[in-house]
Design a protein that fits this description.
Layout (H helix, E strand, L loop, with lengths): L1 E10 L5 H11 L3 E6 L5 E7 L1 H13 L5 E10 L8 E3 L4
Parallel strand pairs: 2-5
Antiparallel strand pairs: 1-3, 1-4, 2-3
Length: 92
């Protein structure tokens, strides 16, 4: 089990990226959140099994139809178990 903090850059806002990311994370049994950033990026924190997090990161490199992902920056951190589900949170 681990935690990953992601910053996704590209054309990732206005293409249902957050909603699709939530569905992808939920289908993988991950917990955490996803949000838009005011600089045009999408940010996510996910916690779960290592292999499921890696699947989610692979998904993030493509995203939903209409997205054009340029980069996915990932930082691994200590698991906190603070989440009970995966949600969309407000923009920062």
């Amino acid at each position: 089990m681990k935690r990953a903090h992601l910053f996704i850059s590209g054309i990732v806002q206005g293409v249902f990226y957050r909603y699709s990311a939530r569905e992808a994370a939920q289908s993988l049994g991950l917990k955490g959140w996803v949000r838009n950033r005011s600089n045009g990026q999408v940010e996510a924190i996910v916690e779960g099994h290592d292999d499921k997090i890696e699947e989610f990161i692979k998904w993030c490199h493509n995203g939903p139809p209409g997205a054009h992902v340029w980069s996915v920056d990932v930082t691994y951190k200590e698991l906190t178990n603070e989440f009970t589900s995966f949600s969309i949170v407000g923009t920062v």
